[in-house]
What we know:
The protein is α/β, with parallel strands linked by helices. It is built from 14 helices and 21 strands. The protein folds into 3 domains: 93 residues, NAD(P)-binding Rossmann-like Domain (Rossmann fold, 3-Layer(aba) Sandwich); 198 residues, UDP-N-acetylmuramoyl-L-alanine:D-glutamate ligase (3-Layer(aba) Sandwich); 141 residues, Mur ligase, C-terminal domain (Protein-Tyrosine Phosphatase, Chain A, Alpha-Beta Complex). It is 32% helix and 22% strand. The longest helix has 15 residues. 48% of the residues are buried.
Amino acid sequence: xxxxxxxxxxxxxxxxxxxxxxxxxxxxxxxxxxxxxxxxxxxxxxxxxxxxxxxxxxxxxxxxxxxxxxxxxxxxxxxxxxxxxxxxxxxxxxxxxxxxxxxxxxxxxxxxxxxxxxxxxxxxxxxxxxxxxxxxxxxxxxxxxxxxxxxxxxxxxxxxxxxxxxxxxxxxxxxxxxxxxxxxxxxxxxxxxxxxxxxxxxxxxxxxxxxxxxxxxxxxxxxxxxxxxxxxxxxxxxxxxxxxxxxxxxxxxxxxxxxxxxxxxxxxxxxxxxxxxxxxxxxxxxxxxxxxxxxxxxxxxxxxxxxxxxxxxxxxxxxxxxxxxxxxxxxxxxxxxxxxxxxxxxxxxxxxxxxxxxxxxxxxxxxxxxxxxxxxxxxxxxxxxxxxxxxxxxxxxxxxxxxxxxxxxxxxxxxxxxxxxxxxxxxxxxxxxxxxxxxxxxxxxxxxxxxxxx
Length: 454
């Protein structure tokens, strides 16, 4: 394969993925001819096309106008894809997205943000802090930052690269971080790791990617789960920790807190709602502080941070109802989302629509999912979104449904969801999942808006 700076034509297999589209934007911004394939149109692919990137939705080699010098693929695209076989036959170099991201990070001081939840919001917060501080950086985000309406931000001559360090398929082991953060380690991706020991070992290896003078920052208890011999820093809502919160209170739907420990910031307000975002803000603060950003800049940036699409995103807020869309797809994330809504609107009934993601995850975490989802007052369970997986015999949404406490849960097909919602009394509605449940956001918003106006 040629050096990346010598390549003029790149093709993306799975260009509509959130991580793939960020990388596509990076190369497009650098003047590379970028094109790609995805199975179905989406808001992400529509935005790419509007930016000048050619996207095809046909798995057909005849759609390729210019033979690429490099093909970048995501594991979400099956190896049985016709285009993959075509490029393999033509002996075009094919690399995973994580490998290319690793090559880029080798040439720029990198902040790698890992953990089974919180990565995207922390990375977006940190990017906003750097932008507010006028520190040149490039950022690869796993979601659309509301402040910038994109998942990639790039500047000439960057001093830092900010990247989510994804544990799936051990992708984060390709990165070369100068500063690394691990927010949390919960059981996930057991289709890859098979057991928790292998998952913890992978996170340990990620931490060991740091150079001798590198900095590791971890959430509560993470340092006791991994093997890392060098000193590290810890953040947590409560003391003792190197970075912690004091005097937390809510006002008009927003949280305020003092940040203490190695940094002092008084009456910091988080611009984006959700109590779990306090800890995300603390993580971003610790990273920014270790990168040399002044406390007053951090405070200013966090106050003006508007969030990330599908991370406790308030899609509709009227006097009678609130609609929130969230990427939560793990039990801890579901807990955080529901509890944040409960604290903000304690007198309101919470209705959750959840689309499980992956058969293997549903099988492995059915009990935990049921415990978390039982916190909702009303629950609608959609069918499992398979993503990269084939069906597993005996695994369906009923594994969760039959374990839900009480009789407040029902199973609903995607076709019937709009009619089911029309018939329900809605006060707080939360749609959750990592599949394609976000495609329902606009139709649901329309349904609820029409109801509010009637």
